[in-house]
Automatic annotation (TrEMBL):
Residues given in the record as Mg(2+) 2 binding sites: 87, 90, 213
Keyword field: Cell inner membrane, Cell membrane, Hydrolase, Magnesium, Membrane, Metal-binding
Residues that hold substrate according to the record: 67, 89-92, 213
Gene behind this protein: cysQ
Cofactor(s) demanded: Mg(2+)
Name the UniProt record assigns to this protein: 3'(2'),5'-bisphosphate nucleotidase CysQ
InterPro entries: CysQ, CysQ/Inositol_MonoPase, Inositol_monoP_metal-BS, Inositol_monophosphatase-like, Inositol_monophosphatase_CS
Kinase is among the record's keywords: no
Membrane topology: Peripheral membrane protein
Family: Belongs to the inositol monophosphatase superfamily. CysQ family.
Taxonomic placement: Bacteria, Pseudomonadati, Pseudomonadota, Gammaproteobacteria, Alteromonadales
Originating organism: Pseudoalteromonas xiamenensis
Length: 255
């Protein structure tokens, strides 16, 4: 299977998971809390099961790491040159609030770099998809457009996108480098995608996230031409250490 076919298959399966999520979204669902006190619902689990099963069918030789099945030792993960990195629902708090700002994230990571990614927002009927050597795209209903980032100078009002549900005490200090900012709150990986499509100029994440929260949106933003870096300007990478936590990072199209 070539990369184009693989990308379409992953898009289709993200939509299948999205359909299962929307059935539960429409009901009164139960909410459980994990050890780290983050919420989880039957929709996270249903989507996880669909995605894991379908990815394993599609590429039996590539391991799958999902937020809902992340108990895999670093000794084992260290041996992976490529793997699927999945967040069945990114933005579970937004799912619970029923504001639509949650996504299904599926990324293919090779040697620490997300080389293919799909971010699907089932309640908004919007998908973002990208693969190296193919490009980055946004699909709304039947219409697909290519995303190519144009850089903007650091002047005038800078459009900043930030978390809706996880405030960051360090963000205000970071933003003092800009003369004026327009702050837009948004849940989930939609933030990385907004930079990819030029609706936002920068997404500084100066707070905790896990690798599955960012890899798919990272692929979309980076392949569209945005920079995705650690605070020191080095590339944000995956599967480099025991912990799943990302360092602080910045997604930007500012020159
Ligand atoms: N203290 C923390 N540690 C790890 N991840 C955190 C965190 N606080 C927030 N996140 C992650 O940030 C994601 C949501 O980001 P945002 O607020 O930008 O929408 C959540 O993903 P999930 O919804 O998949 O659990 C959540 O796990
Ligand atoms: Mg999740």
């Amino acid at each position: 299977m070539n990369q184009t076919e693989l990308l379409e298959e992953v898009l289709n399966l993200s939509r299948e998971a999205g359909k299962a999520i929307m059935v539960i979204y429409a009901k009164d669902f139960a909410i459980d809390y994990k050890q780290d006190e983050s919420p989880v619902t039957e929709a996270d689990i249903a989507a996880h099961q669909i995605i894991s099963a379908r990815l394993t069918e599609l590429t039996p030789h590539i391991p799958v790491l999902s937020e809902e099945n992340a108990d895999i030792s670093w000794a084992e993960r260290q041996t992976w040159s490529q793997y699927w990195l999945v967040d069945p629902i990114d933005g579970t708090k937004e799912f619970i609030k029923k504001n639509g700002e949650f996504t299904v994230n599926i990324a293919l990571v090779r040697n620490g770099v997300p080389v293919l990614g799909v971010v699907h927002a089932p309640a908004l009927n919007v998908s973002y998809l990208a693969a190296e050597a193919i490009g980055a795209f946004k699909e709304i209903g039947e219409a697909r457009i290519e995303l190519k980032v144009t850089e903007v100078p650091n002047e005038g009002v800078i459009k900043v996108v930030g978390s809706r549900s996880h405030p960051s005490p360090d963000l205000a200090a970071f933003l003092t480098q800009f003369a004026e900012v327009d702050m837009v709150p948004k849940g989930s990986s939609l933030k990385l995608c907004l930079v990819a499509e030029g609706e936002a100029d920068i997404y500084p994440r100066l707070g905790p996230t896990s690798e599955w929260d960012t890899a798919a949106g990272h692929a979309v933003a980076a392949i569209a031409g945005a920079s995705v870096t650690n605070i020191d300007g080095s590339p944000l990478r995956y599967n480099q250490k025991d912990s799943y936590l990302n360092p602080y990072f910045v997604v930007s199209r500012i020159k």
